[in-house]
Amino acid sequence: MTKIDIFSGFLGAGKTTLIRKLIAEGYKGQKLVLIENEFGEIAIDGGFLKDAGVEINEMNSGCICCTLVGDFTKALKKVMEDFAPDRILIEPSGVGKLSDVAKAVERVEGAVIGSRVTVVDAGKAKMYMRNFGEFFNDQVENADLIVLSRTDSANSAKVLTAVELLKGLNDHAGLITTPWDQLDGSLILEAMDENGLKAELEKLRHEQEHHHHHDHDEDEEHEHHHHHHHEDGEECDDPECECHHHHDHDEDEEHEHHHHHHHDEDECDDPECECHRHHDHDHDHEHHHHADEIFTSWGMETPKKFTEAGLREILGQLGDAVQFGIVLRAKGIVDAADGDWLYFDYVPGEMELRRGAPAVTGRFCVIGSHIRQDALKELFTGE
Fold this sequence. Notes:
This protein has helices at 15-25, 72-83, 98-106, 125-131, 133-141, 156-169, 185-227, 242-260, 274-286, 291-294, 308-316, 321-324, 373-381, and strands at 2-9, 32-36, 54-58, 64-68, 87-91, 111-121, 145-149, 174-176, 296-302, 305-306, 326-336, 341-347, 350-356, 362-369. The chain is of the alpha/beta class. The chain folds into 2 domains: 2-202, P-loop containing nucleotide triphosphate hydrolases (Rossmann fold, 3-Layer(aba) Sandwich); 295-381, Hypothetical Protein Yjia, Chain: A,domain 2 (2-Layer Sandwich). Helix 1 crosses helix 7 and helix 4 packs across helix 5 (133-141). The N and C termini lie far apart (53 Å).
């Protein structure tokens, strides 16, 4: 049996940073395979995607890094057979649903999920929950452990709000709020294993309850037939009879429905109102969107040279949703005019630039919703 840890988290939350910390400080002495499944045409960190099922790269600390393409379950099984690792770490796409990834892993014989970890940017939780709840909420609701990132730089009130919102979505998951540089990776790994085990025990308890209810339902069904010994249409004056109970229950539901929808939803500006909640709930059940339906990725290779000031100016304009659409992440490696290469990473309201080793060519990727590719191309290349 191979233990598999899944590291979920919305775009730019810091999954890769957390994984690298755990590889260096937490998983010491273990044979690891890291599987990345990036959303987008260009994978900045691991080169370009290959048509083959598995692309292998060596990482620090002896960890093997794979990018799976195509049949996820088939490729995962191949990784398990070829490398026989102690643990496999899966880093899904930032817009992937944790529930979907977990189901795919559970289909592979010999794979056991150790912990479902979701990394959440403390300062952006509320915004992402409001705008991309179908994806963000799924990652939170299905986590065994929620690890907040950027708690040292985010506004303290935002951190408190984020904690309340996350607990509202998932109150059984463990929660890490301490800045990562104050924690050793072994402590985070302990929390992962502890909460993963707790979730597994909870799952077993629910399964036992389900069997109990199933047996109970069979008893009720027998009792139901016993109570309805009178003919259809026959007037029943037994107030304890099930036929009255069901009728009353239907009336209660109808009354509750009218009570909640006492006004037009469009006229209601209270986000906590039941009318919104029921609508959102119905919408989620009716439409199960795939990331490709909501998010778009655009990227390109370019030999163009950028100055640091010029690149900062470009990234600073990405918040203009009218002109460029909703840009959630931009990441790349480009040639600098002074001989160095610039590595950049952008999430709404924040940008990180550093200098690094040359790449074979400049390349970058932009991910978002309703993004305008022509406008972005003109912004980055001037064409």
